[in-house]
Structure formats: structure tokens, C-alpha cells
Amino acid sequence: MSKPRLQPGPDHPITITPTGSRVTVTAGGKVVADTTNALTLQEASYPPVQYVPLADVDPALITATDHQTYCPYKGEASYWSLPDAPNSVWGYQEPYDAVAEIKGYIAFYPDKAEVRIADRTAAS
């Protein structure tokens, strides 16, 4: 059975914009990511999520897992683990066209890593 594939629209908007500030991600006292190229994804009424380029993530601090989830708006999500937080990082390696900008970017669950935008703490 095929999975539903939905387009963002007025009832479920998704916007992706450059964050425009430095974003750092820390976990377990270590800097996992540090970038000035983050994207802010705002989906419907959910809190905004910071997506950071994989190129700006310390590869020694994340490990790919076989866990996956599905979003009808974005596609199949792949997961990575932080040293003490399994499946706490996700990204869309082949996102749907409507959110193609997040290809090559990952996001972090806010209860597993601290995501900071410039001088403030982000929701995610």
C-alpha cells in the first residue's frame, strides 16, 4: 500500500527560510554542530525547527541508525543517535519537492540537544 503524499497549503503551511544567525547545537557538553547556514522550517502550528547542514555537524558525535518515520508532507525521515540519546537526530535524505531545501540538513530533538540561535535558545 502506498503512503499518502500531501502538499503544503493554507490548511497545513510549511515555510523554509534561512535562519540568518549562527546556530550551535550542544549535547553532553560537546558542540555537535556550529553553522551560519541553518534553515528554519515552520510547519503549521508546530514550533519552528532548526535544520543544520550535515557538513557543519561533527560526524564523530552522531551515528546513523536504521530507524525511520514518515511524514506525508516531507517524506521518509532517517535518524541518527547522539552518544547518550538514541534516534535524537533526524533528516530527510530524499525530501519531497515542496521541502527540497532540507536535503542534506538534519534537526535535533530539543529535549536531547541544546539548539541555540545567536544569543537565544531555540525551541528546536
UniProtKB/TrEMBL annotation:
Region (Disordered): 1-22
Domain called DUF427: residue spans: 23-111
Source domain of life: Bacteria
Pfam family, one: NTP_transf_9
Protein known as: Uncharacterized protein (DUF427 family)
Organism: Actinoplanes italicus
Lineage of source species: Bacteria, Bacillati, Actinomycetota, Actinomycetes, Micromonosporales
